[in-house]
């Protein structure tokens, strides 16, 4: 089932399990396992937000490993007990449990994400580098910072970028501008605006695998307009030989797969014609194969 093997761009969403995608991305009657398999037939990566809140069972992770092709990437977040505790402890029980539980995914795991809290600022850089230097070396990593002092293009930000670059660790770009530009008053949008950070966007690539998380609103036409700069940036990275990862969010994520597809199509048509065609969606293929009902009159 391996797809996108030779695709230098890994595109994905924040999850794979949304039943609302049945009938379009997924077959109408697909169960959870089938949705994962069908997601992996279209997209090359997924955000593993679930591990931030709690570790999945060993049986569940083993099942994921069976369903995910070896070239798929599950970008698991380190548990919040690790990232949001009093300090970054490379010897913590929760960190050891995370790696032990996720090891069955093998090369499917990664880059592993460390999402730091807003309070974690430049004064913690030495703590961060000590922590990163003691993580298992067989995996790739990416760090997301949210403290405003890492976004001032000053020595603090330069030092952060330098330390990550020296270790081959990417700095995640989290772009929520389209979300906060939205005037939509739906509960999903208002909740997303309440929960998501509002930070400057610095389109950095510190490794061969830059990571962008884009959060749009409920209007994909407006989202696509906001994505225009990322088309050029992804084309630039691809021309440099990098392999970017781009993840799409919308407030309730129902529109995220469509947004990802339209972004990819525009990138292919306008910037990088050598990109392979995006695979067909299983749910749309199923619908096309249904016999058309013929009226009696």
Provide structural commentary.
The chain has a single domain, classed as Alpha-Beta Barrel (TIM Barrel), CATH 3.20.20. Helix content is 39%, strand content 12%. The protein is built from 13 helices and nine strands. The strands form two sheets. Strands 3-2-1-9-8-7 form a six-stranded parallel β-sheet. Strand 1, helix 1 and strand 2 form a beta-alpha-beta unit. It starts with 9 loop residues before the first strand and ends in an 8-residue tail after the last helix.
Features:
39% helix, globular, alpha/beta, 6-stranded parallel sheet, TIM Barrel, 3-stranded parallel sheet, single chain, 297 residues
Give me the number of helical elements.
Answer: 13
In the residues, how many domains can be counted?
1
User: How much beta, percentage-wise?
Assistant: 5-15%
Which CATH top level class fits? Alpha Beta
CATH architecture: Alpha-Beta Barrel
Q: Element order, helices and strands?
A: EHEHHEHHEHEHEEHHEHHEHH
Strand adjacency order, main sheet: 3-2-1-9-8-7
Shape, per Cα inertia axes = globular
Pfam family, one: DUF72
Protein name: DUF72 domain-containing protein
InterPro entries: DUF72, UPF0759_sf
Helix and strand arrangement:
Layout: E1 10-13, H1 32-42, E2 45-48, H2 50-53, H3 58-67, E3 73-76, H4 80-83, H5 93-102, E4 112-115, H6 125-133, E5 141-144, H7 155-166, E6 170-171, E7 173-175, H8 177-181, H9 187-195, E8 211-215, H10 220-226, H11 228-239, E9 245-249, H12 256-270, H13 282-289
Parallel strand pairs: 1-2, 1-9, 2-3, 4-5, 5-6, 7-8, 8-9
């Amino acid at each position: 089932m391996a797809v996108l093997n030779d695709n230098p761009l890994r595109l994905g969403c924040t999850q794979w399990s949304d039943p609302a995608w049945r009938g379009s991305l997924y077959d109408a009657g697909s169960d959870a396992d089938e949705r994962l398999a069908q997601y992996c037939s279209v997209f090359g990566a997924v955000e593993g937000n679930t591990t931030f809140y709690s570790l999945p069972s060993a049986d569940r992770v083993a099942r994921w490993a069976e369903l995910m092709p070896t070239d798929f990437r599950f970008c698991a977040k380190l548990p919040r007990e690790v990232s949001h505790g009093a300090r970054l402890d490379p010897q913590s029980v929760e960190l050891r449990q995370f790696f032990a539980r996720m090891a069955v995914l093998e090369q499917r795991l990664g880059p592993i994400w460390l999402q730091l809290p807003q309070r974690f600022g430049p004064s913690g850089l030495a703590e961060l580098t000590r922590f990163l230097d003691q993580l298992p070396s067989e995996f790739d990593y990416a760090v997301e910072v949210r403290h405003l002092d890492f976004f001032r293009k000053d020595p603090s930000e330069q030092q952060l970028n330098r330390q990550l670059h020296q270790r081959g660790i990417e700095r995640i770009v989290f772009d929520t501008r389209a979300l906060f530009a939205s005037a939509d008053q739906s509960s999903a949008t208002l909740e997303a605006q309440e929960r998501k950070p509002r930070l400057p966007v610095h389109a950095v690539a510190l490794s061969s695998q830059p990571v962008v998380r884009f959060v749009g609103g409920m209007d994909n036409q407006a989202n696509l307009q906001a994505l225009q700069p990322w088309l050029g940036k992804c084309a630039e990275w691809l021309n440099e030989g990098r392999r970017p990862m781009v993840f799409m969010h919308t407030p309730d994520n129902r529109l995220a797969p469509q947004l990802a597809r339209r972004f990819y199509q525009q990138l292919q048509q306008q910037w990088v014609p050598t990109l392979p065609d995006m695979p067909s969606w299983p749910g749309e293929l199923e619908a096309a194969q249904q016999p058309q009902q013929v009226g009696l009159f």
